[in-house]
Design a protein that fits this description.
Blueprint (H helix, E strand, L loop, with lengths): L9 H4 L2 H18 L17 H14 L54 H15 L9 H12 L12 H21 L5 H7 L1 H6 L3 E9 L1 H6 L7 H26 L7 E5 L2 E7 L2 H22 L4 E9 L1 H4 L6 H18 L4 H8 L8 E2 L6 E2 L8 H13 L4 E5 L8 E2 L3 E4 L9 E7 L10 E3 L10 H5 L8 E8 L2 H7 L8 H24 L17 E6 L3 E7 H18 L6 E8 L5 H17 L5 E4 L5 E3 H20 L4 H15 L5 H16 L5 H14 L3 H18 L8
Parallel strand pairs: 10-11, 15-16
Antiparallel strand pairs: 1-3, 1-4, 2-3, 5-6, 7-9, 7-10, 8-9, 12-14, 12-15, 13-14, 16-17
Helix pairs in contact: 2-6, 3-6, 4-5, 5-6, 10-15, 18-19, 21-24, 21-25, 22-23, 22-25
C-alpha cells in the first residue's frame, strides 16, 4: 500500500474530522499489512497530528473488551475467534468459529467446540486485503467500502489469542471512539491531545465525552401490509419492505454525513431500529435536533401519520461503556429507551396536529385503490407511492445495485431528504447521491455501500408460490421474532462483561443471521415432515421481511412450515441455545387480504409468547401452541409419523376414518366417545388389508394411549390437521 494514497481531495483537505477517520483506518490497514502484529514498528505513517487520539481509542476499545487488555493483534495466527454466545444469558461454553471470510454461498459459520487451525488462511486474506487496499482511494466516499472490506475479511479473526471480539469489530469500534474523542476535544478547544488523553486518562474516562443515540421507526407493519389490491400482492409486499430498508439505510448515512462521521459510528441497524455512538458536543446536539425536526416534517409530508421516527439521546462516559460502576452500561440504554418512549407518546406538537387535521384535500385527489391514501392517481387508479412500488417490484428481484439520485425522472419513490430511489444500473452517476449493493460482498466498485437484505424468493406471485404445493393449494405464512431480545441486548452478559464491544458484536451476529444467512437456510432446507432421503430443498417461499430479529415468510404451506423448523434449529445452533424464537403459522387462500393474514399470524405469534418460557410455535389457531421441541419431537416425530405410516397407503375409507378420529379426539372429554373409538377401530380392523396389520396394531395401541391425556390429544389433533392438508386435493373437502 502506498503512503501517498493518504492524500485527500481538495474538498476534504481542510476538514479535520474527515481526515481523522481516514487516518485511523489507515493506521490499522498498515498494522494489518505489517503482519497483524504490534511488535513491528509501523514506519512512514503520517499520523503525527492525531497520534495520541488514535492510540487512546485503540486502548479504550480494548479496555471495553476487558480481558483483551493490551494484547491487540497478539499471536492470533494460530487461534480461532471465540463465540460471543459463550457467555450470553449465563451460558458457559468455549465454542469457537472456523476462520473464514463472509461469503454468500458458503453456509453458516456455526460456533464449534473444536476448530482446526490453518495459518495459511491468515496469510492469504492479509495478502488479498493488501491487494485491494492498493486500489482503494482514501477519500470519504470510500470509507464505508473499506469497512465493508474489513468486515468480509476479518469478521472471524480474533483481536487477541483469547478473545470473542474480532479484528473487524475492534477496528470499527476504535474508529467510532476515536472520531468521537476528536470531535469532543476539538469543540472544547483542548488541543494538547497527549495531555488530555494519556496524562489525564483516568479523569478523561469519567468525562461525558460520548452520547448514545437511537432511532426507532413506528408504523412499519401497517405500512408493509396495509394494501387492499388483489393484483401483484407479493411484489408490492416485497417492494414496500425493501423500500423501508433503503429508506432507513439512507437516513443513517444522511445523519452520519451531517455529523461528519462514518459507518463505524453505527453500532446496530435492523428491524426499523438503529443505535449510534456520537461525540457529546453542542454541535452534535444541535445537529440531532435539526435532524429530528427535518425527518419528522419530511415523513409527515410524504406519509402523513403512517410512519414516525422516534429518537432518544443520552450522554455517556467511557467508564459507563465499560460498565463501571456495575450496572452503568445498562442504565445508558434504559435512558435512551425512556426518551424514545416519551417521543412516541408525544409525537406531534399542537401546531402539527392542527396542520394534519386541517390538511387540504385537492379537488383532483382521490382514494388509491391499493393503499386507500388520498392523492393524485394515475390511469391505473394508483397513488404516486403505489405506482413507484409497482415499478420497483419489477427490478428489486433482478438488481443488486440501487442508487439514490437527485432527479425524479427514473423513480416515483422519494428518499429522505432530497433524493429518489432509482433502479437504473447504468454507469451514469452525474446526479447520484450514494449507491447501495444488496448482498454484494465481492463488489468491485469500492465506492458502493453493501447492505444485507433477506431477499430469497421462488415465485413472482402468491398463486405461483402455491400452485405446486403438496396436498392442498394453500399459502403458508410464518411470522416470528426472538424472545426477550431487548433484555438480552442490555443485560444478557454478566455485569463484568457488559460492554459496548460485546453489544455491538452480538447485534452484528444477529443481523448476519436474519439478513444474510436466512437466504442460505431457505435455499438449503433440511427439515421434512415426510423424509425424502435428506436432500437439500429450495423452499417454494419468499421473504417479505427479515430484520434484525424477526421474519415474515410466505410460500407453499408445507415448505413454509418446514422452514420454520429449519429456522429454529439453525438459530439454536448459531446462538448455542442462548436465544429462542416464537412464531405463528397459518394457512390461507392466496386471495385472502394480506392485511388480515398479517394481523392473524401476528396474533398467533403473540399467543406463542404467552406460553410459559416462550420458545414456541402456534399453528392454525390458539389451541395448537407448543414448545418447539414438543412440536418437532411429539407432534411430528411421534403422532404424525404413526398416522402417516398407517394412512399413507389407505384408500378413501382410511381418509374417512381419519376425519372420524379427529372428531373423537376433539370431543374426548365425553365418556361415550371412548366406546365410539373402540367401535371405529373395530370397523377399521375388519376393513384393513393384510399388509396393514402392523400399522393397525401400532395405531390402535397409540390412539388408546393418546386419548388419555389432554396434552397428547391436542398433539394428535394438530398432527391430523397437518396430515389432512397433505392429502387434501379438492377445495370442497374440510377438516
Amino acid at each position: 500500500m502506498r503512503d501517498e494514497q493518504l492524500n485527500l481531495g481538495n474538498e476534504f483537505q481542510n476538514d479535520k474530522n474527515l481526515k481523522f477517520a481516514i487516518d485511523i483506518l489507515y493506521y490499522y490497514a498498515k498494522k494489518i499489512e505489517n503482519g497483524l502484529s504490534t511488535k513491528e514498528e509501523i514506519k512512514n505513517l503520517d499520523i503525527k497530528e492525531n497520534e495520541y487520539i488514535i492510540k487512546i481509542s485503540d486502548s479504550m476499545a480494548l479496555s471495553f473488551n476487558k480481558k483483551d487488555s493490551n494484547k491487540s493483534f497478539d499471536s492470533i495466527k494460530n487461534t480461532a475467534l471465540k463465540s460471543i454466545f459463550n457467555t450470553l444469558n449465563e451460558n458457559k461454553q468455549n465454542f469457537k468459529y472456523t476462520p473464514k471470510t463472509l461469503e454468500a454461498n458458503e453456509g453458516i459459520n456455526f460456533p464449534k467446540e473444536e476448530i482446526k487451525f490453518d495459518e495459511k488462511f491468515y496469510i492469504d486474506i492479509k495478502n488479498e486485503l493488501v491487494n485491494k487496499l492498493n486500489k482503494l482511494e482514501y477519500t470519504w466516499e470510500y470509507l464505508s467500502s473499506l469497512l465493508d472490506l474489513l468486515e468480509q475479511k476479518f469478521s472471524y479473526i480474533p483481536i487477541s489469542s483469547d478473545s470473542d471480539i474480532s479484528v473487524y469489530d475492534h477496528i470499527k469500534l476504535s474508529v467510532a471512539i476515536g472520531s468521537c474523542i476528536f470531535q469532543y476535544l476539538s469543540e472544547n478547544n483542548r488541543l494538547d491531545t497527549q495531555q488530555e488523553t494519556f496524562e489525564k486518562y483516568k479523569d478523561f474516562c469519567n468525562e461525558k465525552a460520548f452520547c448514545l443515540y437511537s432511532v426507532d421507526f413506528s408504523g412499519i407493519q401497517d405500512f408493509i401490509y396495509g394494501q387492499y389490491g388483489k393484483e401483484d400482492v407479493l411484489k408490492n409486499l416485497r417492494s414496500r419492505s425493501f423500500y423501508l430498508e433503503i429508506l432507513l439505510e439512507n437516513i443513517i448515512d444522511e445523519l452520519l454525513e451531517k455529523l461528519l462521521l462514518s459507518r463505524a459510528n453505527l453500532l446496530y441497524a435492523g428491524g426499523g431500529h438503529a443505535y449510534f455512538i456520537f461525540a457529546n458536543t453542542q454541535n452534535t446536539e444541535d445537529k440531532l435536533k435539526e435532524f429530528n425536526l427535518n425527518i419528522g416534517n419530511w415523513l409527515r409530508k410524504i406519509f402523513g401519520i403512517e410512519l414516525f421516527l422516534a429518537s432518544g439521546y443520552t450522554s455517556c462516559s467511557a467508564n459507563e461503556f465499560k460498565n463501571e460502576p456495575s450496572g452503568a452500561y445498562s442504565e445508558c440504554f434504559k435512558r435512551v429507551s425512556t426518551e424514545i418512549s416519551k417521543n412516541k407518546l408525544q409525537r406531534y406538537s399542537g401546531k402539527q396536529i392542527s396542520e394534519l387535521n386541517n390538511a387540504e384535500i385537492l379537488e383532483n385527489e382521490r382514494e388509491c385503490k391499493v393503499c386507500h391514501r388520498s392523492d393524485k392517481l394515475n390511469s391505473e387508479g394508483e397513488c404516486s407511492l403505489c405506482a413507484g412500488f409497482a415499478k420497483l417490484s419489477r427490478k428489486i428481484l433482478e438488481n443488486n445495485i440501487f442508487k439514490i439520485v437527485k432527479d425524479n425522472k427514473d423513480s416515483n419513490l422519494p428518499i429522505y431528504s432530497k433524493g429518489f430511489l432509482s433502479t437504473d444500473t447504468s454507469n451514469k452517476n452525474d446526479d447520484c447521491i450514494r449507491i447501495y449493493a444488496k448482498n454484494h460482498l465481492n463488489n468491485k466498485n469500492l465506492s458502493v455501500k453493501n447492505i444485507y437484505v433477506g431477499d430469497y424468493y421462488r415465485g413472482n406471485t402468491l398463486e405461483e408460490l402455491v400452485k405446486d404445493s403438496v396436498g392442498i393449494k394453500r399459502l403458508g405464512v410464518f411470522r416470528a421474532d426472538i424472545d426477550n431480545l431487548g433484555k438480552a441486548f442490555v443485560s444478557g452478559f454478566s455485569k463484568k462483561q457488559q460492554t459496548l464491544s460485546r453489544s455491538a458484536v452480538f447485534s452484528r451476529r444477529l443481523t448476519q443471521f436474519f439478513k444474510f444467512y436466512i437466504n442460505y437456510i431457505l435455499k438449503n432446507g433440511k427439515f421434512e415432515i415426510i423424509s425424502s432421503n435428506n436432500k437439500k430443498i429450495e423452499r417454494k417461499a419468499a421473504i417479505i421481511y427479515s430484520g434484525g430479529d424477526d421474519v415474515f415468510i410466505v410460500g407453499a404451506w408445507k415448505d413454509v412450515l418446514e422452514f420454520s423448523v429449519d429456522l429454529y434449529n439453525n438459530l439454536n445452533e448459531f446462538t448455542q441455545g442462548t436465544l429462542s424464537i416464537s412464531g405463528g403459522f397459518g394457512i390461507y387462500n392466496p386471495k385472502y387480504p394480506i392485511s388480515y393474514i398479517a394481523a392473524q399470524t401476528g396474533e398467533l405469534e403473540e399467543n406463542s409468547k404467552q406460553l410459559e418460557g416462550k420458545n414456541a410455535i402456534t399453528l392454525f389457531d390458539e389451541d395448537n401452541t407448543y414448545h418447539w421441541e414438543d412440536f418437532i419431537g411429539e407432534v411430528i416425530g411421534k403422532k404424525f409419523k404413526v398416522i402417516n405410516r398407517f394412512f399413507s397407503n389407505s384408500q378413501d375409507k382410511g381418509k374417512n376414518f381419519l376425519y372420524n378420529l379427529l372428531e373423537l379426539f376433539r370431543k374426548r372429554k365425553d365418556k361415550i366417545n371412548l366406546a365410539r373409538l373402540a367401535y371405529t377401530l373395530a370397523r377399521l380392523e375388519n376393513e384393513k388389508n393384510r399388509d396393514d396389520e402392523e400399522g393397525y396394531q401400532e395405531l390402535k395401541e397409540k390412539v388408546y394411549e393418546w386419548m388419555k391425556t389432554e396434552k397428547d390429544a391436542r398433539q394428535v389433533i394438530t398432527a391430523i390437521y397437518i396430515y389432512s392438508y397433505l392429502i387434501r386435493k379438492e377445495e370442497g373437502e374440510n377438516v
